[in-house]
């Protein structure tokens, strides 16, 4: 499995989140507390948006097949790139090749996607699932992972128009195909997807026992709890993190995303809603 984080809020240097926290994502690449594996060393990726004046933002992606903890290029970029919306992912392969095209986050146009979990029985059902991808989109699939196929199925089922409905249809079709292949619990996922403005985060599994996922408390609440923390004075009340596991032990800072739930991080009030798969 994998570990990931999604950040949205006041623009800051990537290393503020990737390296500096007590239990940062880089620390988790070696010492995960809640993942299936303690070590997540089968590649990594970061993707970020910048305010460059374009009407439709397109994220930059940097990834590599080596472990995140000793990558000099990642450290160099993290200390110089500033962004108000970025994804970061450390990979532990569930069977597909360790190669750059299999590293998250994945990108299509303005969209960015990353996943922790697996489609059980993916090897047996991969061809059938791939044939359900829109033929116009199919040539853009670059790797061999279940995660990327999930992304392109969500694009096929209307990600541009209604992300929660598209992801629900994607899960619905994966579960249908999986059960046709004799897989009782086909889907295990925490997923983050963004269009460069909003972030949607999903926690779901067919078995009802999903991988861990947390979101940060409102900044104004944290300021009241911890008035001595200088970094809380430097970020806006819109700032939010969604993470596979907490980046530290600050009391009151983290809340678990409930089972079968998705959240929307957006300008204004965020939302937390039930997630139910739908037929495609």
Automatic annotation (TrEMBL):
The keyword Transferase applies. InterPro entries: EgtC-like (IPR026869), Gamma-glu_amide_hydrolase (IPR052373), GATase_2_dom (IPR017932), Ntn_hydrolases_N (IPR029055). GO terms for molecular function: transferase activity. Keywords: Glutamine amidotransferase, Transferase. It comes from the Bacteria. The keyword Transferase applies. Residues 2-280 form the Glutamine amidotransferase type-2 domain. This is Class II glutamine amidotransferase. It comes from Streptomyces subrutilus.
């Amino acid at each position: 499995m994998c570990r990931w984080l999604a950040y949205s809020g006041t623009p800051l240097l990537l290393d503020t989140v990737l390296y500096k926290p007590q239990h940062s994502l880089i620390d988790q690449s070696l010492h995960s507390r809640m993942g299936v594996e303690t070590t997540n060393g089968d590649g990594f990726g970061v993707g970020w948006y910048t305010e460059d004046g374009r009407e439709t933002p397109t994220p930059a992606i940097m990834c590599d097949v080596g472990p995140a903890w000793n990558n000099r290029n990642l450290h160099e970029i993290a200390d110089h790139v500033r962004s108000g919306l970025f994804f970061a992912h450390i990979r532990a392969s569930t069977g597909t090749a360790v190669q750059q095209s299999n590293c998250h986050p994945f990108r299509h146009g303005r969209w960015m996607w990353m996943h922790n979990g697996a489609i059980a029985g993916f090897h047996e059902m991969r061809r059938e699932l791939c044939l359900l991808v829109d033929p116009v989109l199919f040539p853009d699939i670059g790797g061999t992972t279940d995660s990327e196929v999930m992304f392109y199925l969500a694009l096929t089922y209307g990600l541009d128009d209604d992300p929660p409905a598209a992801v629900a249809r994607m899960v619905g079709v994966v579960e249908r195909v999986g059960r046709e292949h004799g897989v009782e619990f086909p889907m295990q996922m925490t997923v983050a997807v963004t269009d460069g403005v909003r972030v949607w985060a999903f926690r779901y599994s067919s078995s009802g026992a999903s991988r861990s996922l947390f979101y940060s408390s409102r900044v104004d609440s944290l300021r009241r709890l911890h008035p001595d923390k200088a970094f809380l004075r430097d970020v806006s009340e819109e700032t939010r993190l969604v993470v596979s596991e907490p980046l530290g032990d600050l009391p009151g800072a983290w809340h678990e995303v409930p089972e079968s739930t998705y959240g929307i991080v957006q300008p204004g009030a965020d939302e937390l809603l039930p997630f139910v798969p739908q037929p495609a």
